Amino acid sequence: MDKTWNNKAWFLVLPVLVLVAFSAVIPLMTVVNYSVQDTFGNNVFFWAGTEWFEDLLHSSRFWEAMVRNLIFSFIILAIEVPLGIFIALNMPKKGWGVPVCLVLMALPLLVPWNVVGTIWQVFGRNDIGLLGYYVNALGIDYNYVQDPFDAWITVIIMDVWHWTSLVVLLCYAGLVSIPDAFYQAAKIDGASRWAVFRYIQLPKMQRVLLIAVLLRFMDSFMIYTEPFVVTGGGPGNSTTFLSIDLVKTALGQFDLGPAAAMSLVYFLIILLLSWVFYTVMTNYDAER
């Protein structure tokens, strides 16, 4: 017997789709318009064609910022995903400890991005910050304002503190969805802790790990507020990521054409890399 599909439910979400399309398409078209024109103010524009895109692709400043972005995202994923899995595996699955751990894990996610930057800006200072004071008291010369390596370490630790909880909560949701029958069968077979993780827990977490990796990659690749508040992109340009460089070009230098071209290329890079991540992980899951 053929099934009858009722598509009337789409009319309920149609207003939302129209609103999202309207709010997304108009700003995008504005950016596209600026990317092919030049202006000297007074709302007077001149056709520039692909000039800004050509200049961008030949700009060492753009490529250096993108390399910094890629390195930062790779480090973040390499730390937060294994750490999130480890914490989720060791969280209680029953009892009063479950809500306590979930609340503690959710707290960093509730802190606004600019507040996170302000907290770590003060926390890392040598004069009044606990981190800066005690690290220097141990004989380690730490100064994120002057040393690029210290600035990177500070930004990475700050991001790990802020966003590892997201990976933990997603992995924990995948773990608690595993039926007890799987663990009982593994116990009867005498499976080791590693075997349980390798053949039961990790496969069951693959879907949520895909979401976690995609979200963390996109967030880390688009990071702006936290490092801008802490280091301002410095010292020098050591923590000037693409987002910071884009804002400096658009607002600091008021070069709207180059900034629009950069934002479009930036968007396409994020879209392409996210698609690659998604394709590789889903194909790997299908082959298993």
Structure overview:
Strand 1 and strand 2 form a beta hairpin. The protein has one domain: Orthogonal Bundle (MetI-like fold), CATH 1.10.3720. Strands 1-2 form a two-stranded antiparallel ribbon. Helix 3 crosses helix 7 and helix 3 packs antiparallel against helix 10. The chain has helices at residues 10-35, 51-57, 60-90, 97-110, 113-123, 130-137, 148-176, 180-188, 193-204, 206-221, 225-230, 242-252, 256-287, and strands spanning 37-39, 45-47. The mean pLDDT is 86. It is mainly α and 288 residues long. Helices cover 74% and strands 2% of the residues. The radius of gyration is 24 Å and the shape is globular. It is built from 13 helices and two strands; from the N terminus they run αββαααααααααααα. The chain crosses the membrane at residues 12-36, 70-89, 101-123, 151-175, 208-225, 259-280. It is found in: Cell membrane.
Unreliable stretches:
none
Subunit arrangement of the protein: single chain
Percentage of residues in helical conformation: over 70%
CATH class membership: Mainly Alpha
Counted by DSSP, the helix tally is 13
Strand order of the largest sheet: 1-2
Distance between the termini: 33 Å
Largest sheet: 2 strands, antiparallel
**Count of the domains:** 1
The CATH architecture designation is: Orthogonal Bundle
| Radius of gyration from CA coordinates | 24 Å
Structural class, please? mainly alpha
Beta content comes to: under 5%
Q: What string gives the helices and strands in order? A: HEEHHHHHHHHHHHH
Classified in CATH, the superfamily is MetI-like
| CATH third-level topology | MetI-like fold
General form:
globular
Give the integer mean of the pLDDT values: 86
